[in-house]
Amino acid sequence: MPASPSTARAINDRLALRLLQQEGPLTAGQLKQLTGLSRPTVADLVERLTAAGLIAVVGESGEQRRGPNARVYGIVADRAHLAALDVRTESVTVVVSDLLGTELTRASVPIADGTGTGPAVEQAVALVECAAKEAGADPLHTVGIGAPGLIDPGTGELRDSSGLPAWHRRLVAALGERLPARVIVENETNLAALAEQRDGAARDRDTFVLLWLGMGTGAAVVLDGRLRRGASGGTGEIGFLPVPGTGALPSATDCAGGFHALVADAAVAGLAEEYGLTARRTAAGPYAAVLVGEAVRAAGGAQGDRAGHECGQGALAASRFLDALAGRIVLGAASVVAVLDPGHVVLGGEIGQAGGAALAARVQERLVRLSPLATEVRASELGGGAVLRGALLMARDAAQDELFGPPSGR
Q1: Which of 205, 252, 238, 223 is nearest to 329 (CA)?
Q2: What are the tens digits of pLDDT across the range 392-410?
Q3: For residue range 14-64, what is the model confidence (pLDDT) as tens digits?
Q4: CB neighbour list of residue 245: distance below 8 Å, 6 or more residues apart
Q5: H-helix segments, 93-187
Q6: C-alpha closest to that of 356 among 319, 301, 305, 306
Q7: What is the pTM of this model?
Q8: What is the pLDDT of residue 311?
Q9: Which one of 101, 238, 251, 317 is most buried, by most CB atoms within 10 A?
């Protein structure tokens, strides 16, 4: 059955808006060429979108040899403003952007351990309100939040978790109450995978697994271009995976005996200490990421100095530490590969990014010995910043779906 005229117009409008988003400002002639639509149809959609305040003339094209210059149209970036939050156990970071995702301002606030639920929520909400006013983005249209914990697949809400502060769940509701904005929340590791797929190490992949290595441990699973959450939203809770070397088993409420105990921040820092490695602590990010980065530099990059004869004992210790860390990471990676066969694993988070090609190559070398399934291992390109980037992408997609209309097939 052919589409009705109104449906056809909506499809054409959406196509033009997506092209303007992806390609930047275009003339009506360029839109005609890229869409394959007739000149009158393009003229009609340009008039509709301009009247709706979604596009505007942003310049002129001087390429024509005869006649007046062609008008160049672009999306009205300040048609809506967005905020993205990265909610950690000890801090909140916010980015405010326009509809195209251009960052307008960024701010953070520490949340001290032991801060009550009410004061913690107030600090976080005030941070968002102040950032929006500073950016001239008041009111906000959509707020995207990345947080640790499970997202209920039925309600889209952050579920209770005994291991996370109570203010995390209250924050989502408080932002919805205080701001005239749509507020959406997603698991932080899932958002990191979204960012790596759009802008990072998995740009050329529609099936991959991201292993998050930072203060905590997690995984995100993308199969055939779709994020998989599982029946209860728990896909990727790899910190609870029972693995050898922990001396215990995890429980339903504690992952101390699982994979988390081998590769999270404290565990990696302890492993580095065993090899005599130290580094200066920084205020931002996991200490383990600093140690791993220093070890990579000392070991000589991706190949390292396995024998240690040429670069001395410091390089030898650093290389052995990276080997030992890769031996731990591969336990989780091999389990995921055996079940899902993703063909591609991204070592995400601050530790994965700090390890770079050196750590990824070591993990892949061991994975080849453990699994018959061909799997490429890459290091994150976005590191800890992937959560915030993913939250902004989520907010931008939601806002554009509302303003432009959802794309076909989503």
Answers
A1: 238
A2: 999 999 998 898 876 654 4
A3: 899 989 988 889 999 999 999 999 999 999 999 999 999 999 999 888 655
A4: 262, 328, 331
A5: 117-134, 167-178
A6: 301
A7: 0.89
A8: 58
A9: 238
The CA-based angle 266-271-273, given to 5 degrees, is 95
DSSP annotation string for 302-357: TT--SS-TTT-HHHHHHHHHHHHHHHHHHHHHHHHHHHH--SEEEEEHHHHHHHHH
Q: Identify any residues that bridge with 70 across adjacent strands, giving them in sequence order.
A: 61
**Domains in the chain, start-ordered, CATH in brackets?**
5-75 (1.10.10.10), 79-188+388-404 (3.30.420.40), 201-381 (3.30.420.40)
- 5: preceding bond cis by omega (within 30 degrees): no
- CA-CA distances (angstroms) from residue 143 to 7, 146, 150, 343? 29, 10, 18, 33
Is 293 in a helix, a strand, or coil?
A: helix
Tokens of 22: 């992806």
Token digits of residue 219: 């995984």
Per-residue DSSP letter, 158 = B
303, pLDDT greater than 80? no
To which residue do tokens 């980015």 refer? 95
Identify the CA nearest to 193 among candidates 329, 351, 345: 345
- Residue 89: closest CA among 174, 192, 163, 190: 163
pLDDT at 164: 78
Per residue in 333-352, pLDDT (tens digit) is 999 999 999 999 999 999 99
Q: Please name the amino acid found at residue 269.
A: A
* pLDDT computed for residue 62 by the predictor: 66
Q: How confident is the model at residue 387 (pLDDT cuts 50, 70, 90)?
A: very high
Burial of 1 (0-12, 13-18, 19+ CB in 10 A): exposed
At residue 95, does pLDDT exceed 70?
Answer: yes
Task: Give dist(CA 100, CA 397) in Å, integer.
Answer: 10
In the chain, the amino acid numbered 341 is: D
